[in-house]
Known about the structure:
The chain has helices at residues 2-26, 29-44, 54-76, 84-92, 99-108, 111-118, 122-133, 138-145, 149-166, 173-189, 192-198, 209-213, 223-230, 278-282; strands spanning 199-207, 219-221, 238-242, 245-252, 255-265, 268-275, 286-288. Strand 3 (238-242) and strand 4 (245-252) form a beta hairpin. The protein folds into 2 domains: 2-118, no CATH class; 173-288, Nuclear Transport Factor 2, Chain: A (Roll). Helix 3 (54-76) packs antiparallel against helix 7 (122-133), helix 4 (84-92) packs antiparallel against helix 5 (99-108) and helix 7 (122-133) crosses helix 9. The chain is elongated, with a radius of gyration of 22 Å. It is an alpha+beta fold.
Amino acid sequence: MESEDFLEQQFEANRPHLRAVAYRILGSTHDVDDALQDAWLRLSSTDFEQVENVTGWLTTVVARTCLNTLRSRQRRAVGSIDDATSNIDRFASHSAMTPEEQAEVADSIGVALLVVLEKLSPAERIAFVLHDMFSFSFDEIGGILGKSSDASRQLASRARRRVRSADDPSVDPQRQRAVVDAFLNASRKGDFQTLLTLLSPDVELVADSAAVAIGAPERKDGPFDVATRFSGGAQSARTALLDGLAGLVWAQGGKPKVAFDFTVIDGKVKRIDMIGDEDVLSEMNIEYVRREKGD
Length: 295
Protein backbone atom coordinates (compact mmCIF):
# COMPACT_ATOMS: atom_id res chain seq x y z
CA MET A 1 0.00 0.00 0.00
CA GLU A 2 2.85 2.35 0.84
CA SER A 3 4.41 1.57 -2.54
CA GLU A 4 1.15 2.38 -4.34
CA ASP A 5 0.83 5.64 -2.39
CA PHE A 6 4.40 6.56 -3.32
CA LEU A 7 3.71 5.89 -7.00
CA GLU A 8 0.60 8.03 -6.85
CA GLN A 9 2.56 10.85 -5.20
CA GLN A 10 5.18 10.66 -7.95
CA PHE A 11 2.55 10.69 -10.66
CA GLU A 12 0.63 13.61 -9.17
CA ALA A 13 3.86 15.58 -8.77
CA ASN A 14 4.47 15.16 -12.51
CA ARG A 15 0.87 15.64 -13.64
CA PRO A 16 1.13 19.37 -14.56
CA HIS A 17 4.23 18.69 -16.66
CA LEU A 18 2.66 15.67 -18.36
CA ARG A 19 -0.52 17.58 -19.14
CA ALA A 20 1.52 20.39 -20.65
CA VAL A 21 3.44 17.96 -22.87
CA ALA A 22 0.31 16.10 -23.98
CA TYR A 23 -1.70 19.24 -24.65
CA ARG A 24 1.02 20.83 -26.75
CA ILE A 25 1.16 17.65 -28.82
CA LEU A 26 -2.55 16.86 -29.05
CA GLY A 27 -4.47 20.11 -28.60
CA SER A 28 -7.46 18.28 -27.09
CA THR A 29 -8.24 17.96 -23.38
CA HIS A 30 -10.15 14.72 -23.95
CA ASP A 31 -7.15 13.07 -25.61
CA VAL A 32 -4.85 14.52 -22.95
CA ASP A 33 -6.83 12.83 -20.19
CA ASP A 34 -6.64 9.50 -22.06
CA ALA A 35 -2.86 9.87 -22.46
CA LEU A 36 -2.37 10.56 -18.76
CA GLN A 37 -4.63 7.68 -17.79
CA ASP A 38 -2.55 5.36 -19.97
CA ALA A 39 0.66 6.66 -18.37
CA TRP A 40 -0.72 5.99 -14.88
CA LEU A 41 -1.76 2.44 -15.80
CA ARG A 42 1.70 1.79 -17.23
CA LEU A 43 3.41 3.19 -14.12
CA SER A 44 1.22 1.25 -11.70
CA SER A 45 2.10 -2.04 -13.44
CA THR A 46 5.84 -1.35 -13.74
CA ASP A 47 8.66 -2.43 -11.46
CA PHE A 48 9.25 1.05 -10.08
CA GLU A 49 12.71 0.22 -8.73
CA GLN A 50 13.97 -0.06 -12.32
CA VAL A 51 12.79 3.46 -13.20
CA GLU A 52 15.73 5.82 -12.65
CA ASN A 53 14.13 9.02 -13.95
CA VAL A 54 10.41 9.09 -13.20
CA THR A 55 9.72 12.35 -15.04
CA GLY A 56 11.60 11.24 -18.13
CA TRP A 57 9.99 7.80 -18.09
CA LEU A 58 6.46 9.19 -17.74
CA THR A 59 7.08 11.83 -20.40
CA THR A 60 8.23 9.13 -22.82
CA VAL A 61 5.13 7.04 -22.13
CA VAL A 62 2.85 10.05 -22.65
CA ALA A 63 4.66 11.05 -25.86
CA ARG A 64 4.31 7.55 -27.32
CA THR A 65 0.62 7.49 -26.44
CA CYS A 66 0.22 10.89 -28.08
CA LEU A 67 2.02 9.64 -31.20
CA ASN A 68 -0.43 6.73 -31.49
CA THR A 69 -3.33 9.13 -31.01
CA LEU A 70 -2.05 11.47 -33.73
CA ARG A 71 -1.58 8.60 -36.18
CA SER A 72 -5.06 7.27 -35.43
CA ARG A 73 -6.47 10.76 -35.87
CA GLN A 74 -4.63 11.09 -39.19
CA ARG A 75 -6.11 7.82 -40.44
CA ARG A 76 -9.58 9.04 -39.55
CA ALA A 77 -8.78 12.42 -41.16
CA VAL A 78 -10.36 14.08 -38.15
CA GLY A 79 -8.61 16.98 -36.41
CA SER A 80 -8.99 18.21 -32.87
CA ILE A 81 -8.86 21.88 -33.73
CA ASP A 82 -12.66 22.34 -33.86
CA ASP A 83 -12.86 22.61 -30.10
CA ALA A 84 -9.44 24.20 -29.60
CA THR A 85 -10.73 27.53 -28.30
CA SER A 86 -12.81 26.04 -25.50
CA ASN A 87 -10.15 23.44 -24.75
CA ILE A 88 -7.51 26.09 -24.05
CA ASP A 89 -9.64 27.71 -21.34
CA ARG A 90 -10.64 24.37 -19.84
CA PHE A 91 -7.06 23.12 -19.79
CA ALA A 92 -5.54 26.30 -18.38
CA SER A 93 -8.02 26.32 -15.51
CA HIS A 94 -7.35 22.72 -14.47
CA SER A 95 -7.11 22.49 -10.70
CA ALA A 96 -3.79 20.63 -10.82
CA MET A 97 -2.04 23.68 -12.25
CA THR A 98 -0.67 26.66 -10.39
CA PRO A 99 -1.58 30.21 -11.56
CA GLU A 100 1.96 30.55 -12.95
CA GLU A 101 1.56 27.34 -14.97
CA GLN A 102 -1.84 28.48 -16.23
CA ALA A 103 -0.34 31.74 -17.46
CA GLU A 104 2.55 29.90 -19.12
CA VAL A 105 0.22 27.59 -21.02
CA ALA A 106 -2.04 30.44 -22.10
CA ASP A 107 0.96 32.34 -23.45
CA SER A 108 2.73 29.45 -25.16
CA ILE A 109 -0.04 27.45 -26.84
CA GLY A 110 -2.68 29.60 -28.45
CA VAL A 111 -5.19 28.70 -31.15
CA ALA A 112 -2.92 30.07 -33.89
CA LEU A 113 -0.12 27.67 -32.97
CA LEU A 114 -2.52 24.76 -32.65
CA VAL A 115 -3.77 25.42 -36.18
CA VAL A 116 -0.20 25.26 -37.47
CA LEU A 117 0.66 22.14 -35.47
CA GLU A 118 -2.39 20.38 -36.91
CA LYS A 119 -0.77 20.67 -40.34
CA LEU A 120 2.38 18.80 -39.28
CA SER A 121 2.76 15.05 -39.60
CA PRO A 122 2.58 13.13 -36.30
CA ALA A 123 6.35 12.57 -36.24
CA GLU A 124 7.10 16.22 -37.08
CA ARG A 125 4.77 17.38 -34.34
CA ILE A 126 6.32 15.09 -31.73
CA ALA A 127 9.86 16.07 -32.72
CA PHE A 128 9.09 19.79 -32.72
CA VAL A 129 7.22 19.86 -29.42
CA LEU A 130 9.60 17.63 -27.49
CA HIS A 131 12.77 19.30 -28.78
CA ASP A 132 11.79 22.95 -29.09
CA MET A 133 9.44 23.16 -26.12
CA PHE A 134 10.82 20.55 -23.73
CA SER A 135 14.51 20.23 -24.74
CA PHE A 136 14.45 16.50 -25.45
CA SER A 137 17.56 15.25 -27.23
CA PHE A 138 17.20 13.85 -30.74
CA ASP A 139 18.38 10.48 -29.45
CA GLU A 140 15.48 10.46 -26.98
CA ILE A 141 13.03 11.60 -29.64
CA GLY A 142 14.33 8.96 -32.04
CA GLY A 143 13.65 6.30 -29.41
CA ILE A 144 10.05 7.47 -29.09
CA LEU A 145 9.48 7.71 -32.86
CA GLY A 146 11.38 4.57 -33.77
CA LYS A 147 13.62 6.61 -36.06
CA SER A 148 17.27 7.61 -36.16
CA SER A 149 18.62 10.65 -34.36
CA ASP A 150 19.37 12.28 -37.73
CA ALA A 151 15.84 11.68 -38.96
CA SER A 152 14.44 13.15 -35.74
CA ARG A 153 16.63 16.22 -36.17
CA GLN A 154 15.42 16.67 -39.75
CA LEU A 155 11.77 16.24 -38.72
CA ALA A 156 12.12 18.89 -36.00
CA SER A 157 13.94 21.24 -38.36
CA ARG A 158 11.31 20.89 -41.06
CA ALA A 159 8.50 21.37 -38.55
CA ARG A 160 10.22 24.48 -37.21
CA ARG A 161 10.46 25.99 -40.69
CA ARG A 162 6.81 25.24 -41.39
CA VAL A 163 5.74 26.83 -38.10
CA ARG A 164 7.77 29.95 -38.86
CA SER A 165 6.50 30.11 -42.45
CA ALA A 166 2.90 29.90 -41.30
CA ASP A 167 3.53 32.90 -39.04
CA ASP A 168 5.29 34.89 -41.79
CA PRO A 169 2.94 37.04 -43.90
CA SER A 170 5.55 37.17 -46.67
CA VAL A 171 5.12 33.43 -47.33
CA ASP A 172 2.59 33.04 -50.15
CA PRO A 173 1.94 29.45 -51.40
CA GLN A 174 1.01 30.64 -54.89
CA ARG A 175 4.07 32.84 -55.14
CA GLN A 176 6.22 30.00 -53.82
CA ARG A 177 4.87 27.73 -56.55
CA ALA A 178 5.72 30.34 -59.21
CA VAL A 179 9.28 30.70 -57.87
CA VAL A 180 9.84 26.93 -57.74
CA ASP A 181 8.48 26.53 -61.28
CA ALA A 182 10.78 29.29 -62.53
CA PHE A 183 13.71 27.72 -60.67
CA LEU A 184 13.10 24.30 -62.22
CA ASN A 185 12.70 25.79 -65.71
CA ALA A 186 15.93 27.80 -65.42
CA SER A 187 17.78 24.79 -64.01
CA ARG A 188 16.79 22.56 -66.91
CA LYS A 189 17.72 25.19 -69.49
CA GLY A 190 21.03 25.99 -67.82
CA ASP A 191 19.93 29.62 -67.44
CA PHE A 192 22.50 30.63 -64.85
CA GLN A 193 21.57 34.33 -64.74
CA THR A 194 17.88 33.63 -64.10
CA LEU A 195 18.82 31.23 -61.32
CA LEU A 196 20.86 33.98 -59.69
CA THR A 197 17.88 36.36 -59.75
CA LEU A 198 15.72 33.75 -57.98
CA LEU A 199 18.13 33.16 -55.11
CA SER A 200 18.42 35.17 -51.90
CA PRO A 201 21.89 36.68 -51.23
CA ASP A 202 22.24 34.35 -48.22
CA VAL A 203 20.67 31.26 -49.81
CA GLU A 204 21.83 27.89 -48.52
CA LEU A 205 21.55 24.38 -49.89
CA VAL A 206 21.66 21.67 -47.21
CA ALA A 207 21.48 17.91 -47.76
CA ASP A 208 20.83 15.22 -45.17
CA SER A 209 23.15 12.24 -44.83
CA ALA A 210 20.96 10.01 -47.03
CA ALA A 211 21.04 12.54 -49.89
CA VAL A 212 24.80 13.00 -49.47
CA ALA A 213 25.25 9.22 -49.71
CA ILE A 214 23.82 9.23 -53.23
CA GLY A 215 25.88 12.16 -54.47
CA ALA A 216 24.40 15.39 -53.14
CA PRO A 217 26.73 18.06 -51.72
CA GLU A 218 26.46 18.32 -47.97
CA ARG A 219 26.20 22.10 -48.16
CA LYS A 220 26.41 25.02 -50.58
CA ASP A 221 26.20 28.67 -49.55
CA GLY A 222 25.49 31.77 -51.61
CA PRO A 223 23.79 32.34 -55.00
CA PHE A 224 26.82 31.51 -57.16
CA ASP A 225 27.52 28.08 -55.64
CA VAL A 226 23.84 27.09 -55.46
CA ALA A 227 23.14 28.23 -59.03
CA THR A 228 26.25 26.39 -60.24
CA ARG A 229 25.00 23.21 -58.60
CA PHE A 230 21.61 23.34 -60.34
CA SER A 231 22.37 24.99 -63.68
CA GLY A 232 21.75 22.43 -66.41
CA GLY A 233 20.52 19.89 -63.88
CA ALA A 234 17.23 18.80 -62.31
CA GLN A 235 16.25 17.13 -65.59
CA SER A 236 14.49 14.26 -63.81
CA ALA A 237 12.98 16.32 -61.00
CA ARG A 238 9.26 16.96 -60.84
CA THR A 239 7.32 19.75 -59.22
CA ALA A 240 5.34 18.52 -56.23
CA LEU A 241 3.47 19.87 -53.25
CA LEU A 242 5.30 18.86 -50.10
CA ASP A 243 2.73 19.12 -47.35
CA GLY A 244 0.98 21.82 -49.37
CA LEU A 245 4.00 23.92 -50.37
CA ALA A 246 5.77 23.70 -53.73
CA GLY A 247 9.03 21.78 -53.98
CA LEU A 248 10.75 19.27 -56.23
CA VAL A 249 11.01 15.50 -56.07
CA TRP A 250 13.42 13.12 -57.76
CA ALA A 251 11.98 9.61 -57.91
CA GLN A 252 13.05 6.19 -59.16
CA GLY A 253 10.50 3.59 -60.15
CA GLY A 254 7.76 5.84 -58.83
CA LYS A 255 9.34 5.97 -55.37
CA PRO A 256 10.58 9.34 -54.06
CA LYS A 257 14.33 9.24 -53.48
CA VAL A 258 15.06 12.90 -52.76
CA ALA A 259 12.72 15.78 -51.97
CA PHE A 260 13.87 19.37 -52.50
CA ASP A 261 12.14 21.36 -49.78
CA PHE A 262 12.16 25.08 -50.68
CA THR A 263 11.93 27.97 -48.26
CA VAL A 264 10.82 31.01 -50.28
CA ILE A 265 10.63 34.44 -48.64
CA ASP A 266 9.68 37.64 -50.46
CA GLY A 267 9.92 35.92 -53.83
CA LYS A 268 13.47 34.63 -53.30
CA VAL A 269 14.72 31.12 -52.52
CA LYS A 270 16.15 31.35 -49.01
CA ARG A 271 16.95 27.70 -48.44
CA ILE A 272 16.74 24.34 -50.20
CA ASP A 273 16.78 21.18 -48.10
CA MET A 274 17.59 17.97 -49.95
CA ILE A 275 15.85 15.20 -48.04
CA GLY A 276 16.72 11.59 -48.79
CA ASP A 277 16.02 9.96 -45.44
CA GLU A 278 13.25 7.41 -45.98
CA ASP A 279 11.89 8.00 -42.48
CA VAL A 280 11.46 11.70 -43.19
CA LEU A 281 10.10 11.18 -46.71
CA SER A 282 7.52 8.73 -45.35
CA GLU A 283 6.12 11.47 -43.11
CA MET A 284 5.66 13.92 -45.99
CA ASN A 285 2.46 14.28 -47.97
CA ILE A 286 3.80 14.40 -51.54
CA GLU A 287 1.38 15.42 -54.28
CA TYR A 288 2.86 15.59 -57.75
CA VAL A 289 1.83 18.57 -59.85
CA ARG A 290 0.55 17.76 -63.32
CA ARG A 291 2.99 18.83 -65.99
CA GLU A 292 1.88 21.43 -68.47
CA LYS A 293 2.37 20.86 -72.19
CA GLY A 294 5.88 21.73 -73.21
CA ASP A 295 7.39 20.96 -69.80
